[in-house]
Queue: 2 jobs
Job 1
Amino acid sequence: MPSRLPRLAAIATAAGAFSGLFGVGGGTIIVPLLVLWLGYEQKEATGTSLAAIIVIGGMAAAAQAAYGNVDLAKGLLIGLPGAAGVVAGAAIQQRISHRAVAAAFIVLLLASAAILIF
Amino acid sequence: MDALDWTGLLALSFAAGTAGGLLGVGGGVLFVPALVVFAGQSQLGAQATSLVAIVVVSLVGTWRQRGYGNVRLRDGVTVGLLSPLGVLAGVVLANAVPERVLELSFAAVQLYIAAQLAREVGLPSRPVKR
């Protein structure tokens, strides 16, 4: 697919802008655009989005650490239950349909839009 | 921090991770308020600190999802590596456009994407074959 790289670049740009401006990860943008523009299945989009977030979050964490804003101990303290949660969340996801994952994702998008508006 | 703070912090963090595994997001939307409310961090400090947890969640999540066959590593890393372009675009935008306009524009983009996604997967009604 010749338009594949430009589409990935567009997704990356939108996700970066979103996280840079509003301080949230680009996941809410990456997941649906992988589905809509690159024909991903919903679950593949969520897994691939996490791989992108390692890189995006890693770069952002390094930049914030350089400014001395990162409390590493607290970050790891909440990261451990977070890690347990992601293992559970990924396992739950394998037991429900792509449509159910998409429906949950739509709820997340609506909530996120509402937070931006209000 | 008292026992209630600890409970809230750990519960919200677990929920953030669960959202990550289920929906493919980093969980910052829950980590940040958890740190502000239960650990007494400032908004800026919480956003910076939450990134550590987001990296942990996305690493473990990618590992698990790879086991389930749901990760296209090459595409994911490509999106990650190209994202600084967006950060630059975001900085330029932030200096050129009022914040309220940006918030409303992004909200509109999200609502539009939600509608497209609903149509794509045939929600709320069954899809008509196009």
Note: Chain A is about 85% helix and 0% strand.
Job 2
Amino acid sequence: MKIERAELIKKLSLSDTVFAFDLASKTIARKAKPGQFIQIRIFDSFDPFLRRPFSFASVLGDRFRIVFRVRGKGTKILSQCHSGQYLDILGPLGKPIAQLQNQRLVLIGGGVGIAPLFFLAQRLGPSNHLTLLLGAKNRKELIMLKDFKNLTKNIALTTEDGSFGKKGKVTDLLRNSEFGIRDSGLKIFACGPWPMLRAIQKRFGSIPVYGFLEERMGCGTGICFCCAVKKKDGGYLRVCQEGPVVNLSQVEI
Amino acid sequence: MDISIKIKDTVFANPILLASGTFGYGSDFVSVINQVGGFITKGITLAPRIGNPAPRIYELPGAILNSVGLENPGALDFRNKILPRLNFSTPLIVNIAGFDTADFSTIVKILDCDRIAGFEINISCPNVKTGGAIFGQDPKLTEQIVTEVRRATKKLVITKLTANFIDPVNTAQAAESAGTDAISLINTLYGLAIDLKEQKYFLGGKTGGLSGPAIKPFALFCVERVSKAIKIPVIGGGGIVNATDVCEFMLAGASLVQIGSLNLINPFAAFDILKDLKKYMKIYKIKAIRQIIGKVRSNDDKNNTCG
């Protein structure tokens, strides 16, 4: 991995607090694989001190997209960047999701967690069968919907306010869904807040659920051991090194 | 232009060391490690440790507070599984930590081999409940630990001191009389972060260690104070982010410096620092970097700065 200066080509505001940045970097775009992320240095003034991690939401040619919600100082400053500005980026980082072939896959996304699933869906070969379950607070936060619809028709949607799709949370779709607990050959990828991952892991006993993990991150490169998530068999794994996408049966959630 | 520094029998190609805990065990970024003066591993304890619960890091302007808690595979696994895979030519220094005074020399006996250039005795970790900084706050325990390690190895022995709640001059002199080859300081400072929303401690390990540019003036103060009180070399660190910081620490009395927190935001930072360091030496007509060690002048000194 290297540090690249990537130009912010296009900035989109997807809702009041959610932004999409299209960035140009040949090196990063060509190396990026689903499941991976980048670390952006917000300022070179050491405030904020640390970089901020962002998953790839899509990659096309020499460009890639990140999607983020403004949650604190770092994302707030980032959201005020303008197109034409250059960002200091370290990546791609993290373990890529292994190549998938002839699989029945269910991708479950909640909130901005929808975004990294798009890059995964985008890179899946035609031999896989894909179902998408996506949920957000309201219609506006169901991001990248058009893009997803270009990939598959198997999409179920929820909004918490009922403004689009079924009213409720994306995990409600699992209650009476067609997916059986003993449905062998099924693989689930989930990206969203911890309670969502917890509910999904609980619902599917023996079916492998791969979750996109989040934890307070230091370096993003595996050398500081800060982004620790407890493993079931003892000890911790590093989200940035052994993850961010891991089989949820391996970790304490 | 000479940027090398020699301590005991070890020649460091330049004064930049990568600080313990901020660059893993040395199996990643080998191209960076090969360019710096020396590499110091993450702290190794006798038994394996899983470390502290998350969150392990908290951020504030110009600083970070960490509470990793010495997660490491233990001395045996480090020797058998990690050490054989480390293939860089830079002097390798193993940071060792203990919970009992006898741990340190025991670890040294397990690890001592030709591959290792030396040991850094960590009696300054703020993130463990026993041992760690508690040893480093007591000159008698410091002397005892250093004496035992000194007996156990002929290699370079560095003692990493704490500056928390004590005058490091006392522990530095204790370590010097017990035979340490160099002193390194400062380790992170005690710190606490509180999560207001939850009204609980932010870090999983409750307290943490503060590092980054915010602590640099205090680190410089300690380096100057300690280097004036002992005869052996001082290795300085605390918030170094560029080549001017390196020069400042050396002027204050450091023979070598450690880069720590900066590695978390730029693992390639050492490249830029080395390039700029050579630039400064040219501008200020410094032929050998060792010439500036401890050469900070008093404010009434009217002589020219350089040349």
Note: The longest strand of chain B covers residues 92-97.
